[in-house]
Write the structure tokens for this entry.
Amino acid sequence: MTAAVGLRADFDAGALWAAARRSKDGPQARRLLALAAIYDGATRTEAAQIGGVGLQVIRDWVLKFNAHGPDGLIDRKAPGQRPRLNDEHRAALAAILESGPIPAVHGVVELCANLGDGVDQAADISWFATSIPSWNFTPRTTFGN
């Protein structure tokens, strides 16, 4: 059996209790209380019961706490998927959108598919035409009305 990872020496149970009281983040407070129990002499299994998690999660919390202190126990936003379009591709799509559809060429129903073909050719990217309408360009591009 491997030895448990020790907690930082610059904190104690009282400091974690106080941090849990001040916390506006419920999951962080729960994690702090579980770690405070370890400082108070509870076993990792008892701390896992307090936190409502398994032993591996307690270990992960200890590692995060040791590395970053109480702030390491706050849930961070996941980075998400890498954008498919870079700035050059966005500019090409913006030019296509700002020039507007040509009814004789694009039609009305086929606009999304034709936009995809235009960006395909301009940016050398391929995707399903059904994904184009769900894209949100407003944060990075502005189109006049």
Summary: Helices lie at 13-22, 26-39, 44-51, 55-68, 87-99, 103-106, 111-123. The chain is about 50% helix and 0% strand. The chain has a mean pLDDT of 79. The CA atoms of residues 60 and 73 lie 10 Å apart.
